Please model this.
Amino acid sequence: MAIEAGLSLLRGRYTLIDRQIESAEDSESWVAVSEDERRVLVRLWPYTGTEPPDLLRALWDAELRTLYRVASAPGADQSILVIRDAGLDRTANCFVMVLEAERSGGYERLSVALRNRKAYPWLRMADLSARRGMWRALGKIAAGIALLHEQNTLHRNIEAERVYFSPDTDVESFRLGGFEWSVRLGLPATGSPPVGWCSPPEFFTGKYFGYRPETDWYGFGMLVARCFRPLEAYEKLEPIPRHRKVIEQVEKSSAQEFSELERATTLSLFADDPYERLCDAKTIANCIEDIVDGLESNFQIDDAQDEPLILAINTNSQELLDRVTELDFIPNPKEPHETFSPRDALHVATLVQFVQQDLDQAEPCVRISSVRNRNFYLLEGQNLVFRLAAFQFTDRRTNRSDFTWDVGYCTGLTELRGTETSVELSSARIHVKSVSEVRKRFPLKAPRSWKRYLPQVDPTLKLRADLSRFYNYIRCTNQIELLLLDAEIFAYEMDGEPKVEDSKIQIVIKEVDRNRPILSIFEIDGGLTEFLQKQFVSRGLTGKQVVLTEQESLLLDPKERRANTWSIEKIDAVQQRITLTQIADTELIRSPQKPDI
Model:
């Protein structure tokens, strides 16, 4: 059946519309509508014959498991196309995969926009707001690549042709696709690498080439360069000359189009030396975040950059006093037995200085951590751990209370437990003051805000980490179960010849050593006879059946299993012999010398 607009797939659940996005040697991409009128992207892989080859079907099933696992990761729908449906359509003779750009619904390829930059305002890179929006969108693509790598999946084809967007919502709708079924089914493997934008130059200088996570990050770097510089004219060049041209174009970009930080970050993604390229997902995300922050002020130096961060402490806090006393705090060194008084200026100054020293002596530096489901952070010194929150003040003009991060406020002390994200505060100094002193001088002149130093809480990261641990637990328990089942495979040999009595075949077997030994911690005490006795007691009649086979495997063909199933007639624990019987309506085949049970 011809694949064309109007074709219904997967029993009429999806209908292709007059919008073919891509046609390759082995697949086609179409925009379709679902039964509930949602727009989706449909990938089709045609096959010949009435049924696909068994190998292709097995690869398809494996690929689906991977894609569903990726789609289930928290935050996946914000950065990548996620699989919504899949199946084998025998009417159209093709594999069908349905993908969706959630919260976007756009399936225009970014490469189309890059060839016609003037038609898209968000590609005018002299505009700071356009550049900031583009970096945010590229940050989402980077998050999608990191998510794939976390799921042990390589994209292998990061380029503008694999980024989809909606013309109605522009860069906010960017979603990464093209990673589905990355193995080209039914096509012979070529001995040379692809010549697209995503292939690094070393693919063409060595005898061999291979894909790694670093390859995806190189492709991401080329994608970044194409978004900010008009490079589409180099698409037909050979990979190595094209690589040099891209570096040349980025290096000579003007300051109005590219800041020094943007230029350095972009060049580091596809540097000539593979070992000097940025390829750590967290580092790349931090660089993009710094660029977005810098673009908000056009990279102007903040007047408060050299100012310290102000931390206000409540010198009336009994909790704080009790803790510092445990740490040998003395209010008045000249009078060691003097009791602390919050009204004594010397005592207060000594307490402030004690807290200051604890923060200054933190090794290697002060750390700020977010706390799950809480509206405060943890500020870790050498011995003290503070609850850090925004400072509450009263606006004298309106007489209303408000909160500001121009001053950090210590709401109390706590312990380290249940933290999510942490950052080291190595680039800023902290100046401790009492609450009363801060209020006297509030509002402060040119304060340095705590906001940019607070760890960003991404709930999807926590969910993703928990899900990853759960997957690892499932994998571990599955492996343990396989080892336990493997220990229930016994090698045996026949003791004497088979006997045919009353339409039954009777044989006697005994256990022998396996060619492949069992892992000692899973070895069954008492061997074959003890195991069969326990099975009979615990499982009743079903525990009386065993399978004799030449294969040392847990997976058996159902027909072979039925033909080689025997019933236990007698277990002689003393002589270590087992008598088995089988109905004599099948051909008697002599067993090998050492098969398995």
